[in-house]
UniProtKB/TrEMBL annotation:
It comes from Salibacter halophilus. This is Fibrobacter succinogenes major paralogous domain-containing protein. Residues 62-247 form the Fibrobacter succinogenes major paralogous domain. Keywords: Membrane, Transmembrane, Transmembrane helix. InterPro entries: Fib_succ_major (IPR011871). The chain crosses the membrane at residues 34-51.
């Protein structure tokens, strides 16, 4: 009887040791999984992959001169820290963002079918928000950075032809896209007293700069279907324009 009792105690001890070993193995396995996931994420980010909007998205880019540009319009609904950027659908919502000086975005004509090709339209307050609208490693270009781009492509009087996409522009306004920038005619949303609401899809593309002109206006760059120019203009900060990001130095 004693022999059997001793054997049972030994067996129980071995069972406990086996259980502890199993727990240690499971913990080690989980640590390996976590390390592998982090390593994979770091590798993806090193190859220009963004985790913006809580999704892993490859960023298409092109080198133009000494600058690196995105080849698509920005299409995010969250700031870099994860906070939502408010969507403004009605005129009342859009004007409220203007009055409060707060960020807002919309689809062209409030139609989500325009999102895939054209991205979103943002007011300038979204550009200037300290939470950051561009993905990590990118920023909204300044006035001088847009000027540098135009200068590399021959100057503001002719750069538009190299920046415009080869299709999608009306009035025979397609470009050569020689630069690889792929500027698309996404249109805009304006509430400036001259033209209310959405206009310009197929005819124009306007891109915000990060540079303010005064309390009411900021600089933006513009492409047109009827010209090969690429000039900078001042526009109301409340307007809804496209954003095209440039890579940090």
């Amino acid at each position: 009887m004693r022999s059997r009792g001793n054997t049972s105690l030994v067996d129980l001890t071995k069972t406990n040791e086996l259980g502890n070993s199993t727990l240690k193995f499971c913990a080690m396995k989980q640590q390996i999984k976590t390390f592998t996931a982090l390593l994979t994420l770091l590798i993806l980010m090193s190859f220009g992959v963004s985790i913006h909007d809580h999704k892993i998205k490859p960023i298409d880019e092109v080198v133009i001169g000494e600058q690196v540009w995105m080849t698509k319009n920005l299409n995010v609904h969250k700031f870099r820290n994860g906070d939502l950027i408010p969507q403004a659908v009605t005129d009342e919502e859009w004007n409220k963002a203007k009055e409060d000086g707060t960020a807002a975005w919309c689809y062209y004509e409030n139609d989500s079918a325009n999102e895939e090709e054209y991205g979103k339209l943002y007011n300038w307050y979204a550009v200037n928000d300290p939470r950051g609208i561009a993905p990590e490693g990118w920023h909204v270009p300044s006035y001088s950075e847009w000027k540098e781009l135009a200068g590399f492509l021959g100057g503001e009087g002719v750069a538009g032809n190299s920046l415009k996409s080869e299709s999608g522009w009306e009035d025979d306004g397609n470009g050569t896209n020689k630069s690889g920038f792929t500027g698309i005619a996404a249109g805009s949303r304006t509430e400036d007293g001259f033209s209310d609401g959405f206009n310009g899809k197929g005819n124009g593309a306007d891109f915000w700069s990060s540079t303010s002109y005064n309390d009411y206006d900021a600089w933006y760059s513009s492409l047109s279907s009827v010209e090969s120019t690429f000039y900078m203009y001042r526009g109301d900060k409340e307007n809804g324009l496209s954003i095209r990001c440039i890579k940090d130095d």
